[in-house]
Amino acid sequence: MGITEEGAIANLRRELAAARRLATRIALINRVARLITASLSADELLPLAITTIHESFGFRYVAATLLDEDGARQGSLAEAGASRSGTPLDLQAEPAATAARERRPVLHGAPSPALAMPIVVGGRLRGLIGVEHDEPLAADVTESLALIADQFGAALENARLVGGLERALEATRLLYEVSQRLGSAMSVDQVIAAYLGEVAARGPHICTVALYEFDHQERRSGVIVRGVWSPAAGVQLRQDRVPYTRDALDEPLEAGETVTIADVRTDPRVSPELRELQLRDGRPALAFIPLIARSRRFGLVILSHDRPYGWPVAELRLYQTTASQLASAVDSRLQHDLAVERARQVAILEERRRLARELHDSVTQSLFSMSMLAQVLPALWTLDREEAARSLGQIRDLTRGALAEMRELLYELRPAELGEQDLAQSLRARAGAVERRTGLPVRVDAPGMLRLPATEAQALVRIAQEALTNADHHASAHMLTVELEAGPPLRLRIRDDGRGFDPSTVGVGRLGLISMRERAAAIGARLEVASAPGAGTTITVTLPAEQEERPWSLSES
């Protein structure tokens, strides 16, 4: 039996209607895909996708949620419309439970037609889309939602990859900025303050930097809190010491591991002392990141929380990636401070030896001569009073000389005049002492009265003193000159017309030069030595132009 004309027309109409529905569905899918792929943020993707699906298909209710690695809900539920079930995308109820477990779309008929569509990326469940409608859901609608779920999953994966790249770039930028800040810090306190201000201030946790104190046998004897950052108070530098006690946390920390404690009240590794301390401060959650340099653990970065806390790995990564930079910078400053202290001790020892030589060569010899003359004076007085009178004169001259030597040595030990005199007067007093002791003429060119902070004035006088002493001992000079220019920049020059030397051949052990350089560095000055064989020596100390803000005062004398 053939198809009538009316039947053929009806078939064509049905096919045309199906083609129109297909075209409409493809257009809707494309529209949803364009809107979804327009964003690279997972937080923006979820509500955008739900709103678009709800508006495009006219469903009664649409909801979506993202799931973490363990299948638990990650973040809040995004939804549009009104649900009749009352438990949208309940992971413990149908149809969501089956869809999540079996990774396939699941239809459900009560209390209204519903569909749970899994979002799967690379075989891993990333989320669920739930739909409720007033009418039964056709197969082509389910297919359309499956395509949209695939596109949504691809968009989520792209967002994840872009987010990972952005985090990697942010971490690289952070490492660079931290490196710059720590590298420019001049002391341990400045390094710690830079770390807390640059790293700790980016996180929500109270962050403490603590360094160990070591005894003479290099055993840990104390823990010194050097700095703390908190949201309420910002960066605070400290010097709080608590005794060091070895506990169960030492072994993993010694191996360079980060140790996390969710709650000090329940963690068996926590010592009673640490538990009491943290509960007293109201911070039961802790994370310890060791600071290690040259294979030695010398400190900790300690994070704390005011309630029990699980310490997500992502939050700790910020502190872990910068801990090695902090350890390297702190260790470098500690080693520098140790080297400076050792050099200072050597300089002090050498200064004592020099004073001992000076006393032996001058005052002691004078006292010995006076003692010998005093012993023979009674007998000489009875035999030859004229000779005895000459001996008394020698004793007088020796006494005056010894007094001058002692004044000079006492001045070197404690230049008390700096508290009362200006810099020019102090330099003149020092030059006069050298003239009296050595007989060498010393010219001082220091116009006006220049007052400096005591630390800077004493450093400059000590440098001049060391330079004049070196010229006396080594240069075989006939004239010494001290010149002071107020500037800014302030310059102090000490010249001699002696035999000179080649500065490039001077060994590192010349303590006189070491002492002068250290004194100059301590006040932010620059010391230069200009000399050549047969051409004398000039030592110049310059306080740079940026020191102009210092409280100098200059007045004509």
Quick structural gist:
This protein has helices spanning 5-36, 42-57, 96-102, 139-184, 188-198, 250-254, 272-281, 313-383, 385-413, 423-438, 454-475, 511-522; strands at 61-67, 73-81, 106-108, 114-121, 124-132, 206-214, 220-230, 234-243, 259-261, 285-293, 296-305, 442-445, 449-451, 480-485, 490-496, 526-531, 537-543, 553-555.
The CATH topology label of the largest domain is Beta-Lactamase
Radius of gyration equals 42 Å
Which secondary-structure class do the elements indicate? alpha+beta
CATH H-level name of the largest domain... which superfamily? GAF domain
Give the helix proportion (percent range). Answer: 40-55%
- What percent of residues are in strands? 15-25%
Mean pLDDT: 80
Number of helices: 12
Q: What's the CATH first level of the largest domain?
A: Alpha Beta
How many DSSP E strands? 18
Number of domains: 3
Distance between the termini: 134 Å
Q: Layout of helices and strands, plus pairs?
A:
Elements (H helix, E strand, L loop, with lengths): L4 H32 L5 H16 L3 E7 L5 E9 L14 H7 L3 E3 L5 E8 L2 E9 L6 H46 L3 H11 L7 E9 L5 E11 L3 E10 L6 H5 L4 E3 L10 H10 L3 E9 L2 E10 L7 H71 L1 H29 L9 H16 L3 E4 L3 E3 L2 H22 L4 E6 L4 E7 L14 H12 L3 E6 L5 E7 L9 E3 L2
Parallel strand pairs: 12-14
Antiparallel strand pairs: 1-2, 1-5, 3-4, 4-5, 6-7, 6-11, 7-8, 9-10, 10-11, 13-18, 14-15, 15-17, 16-17
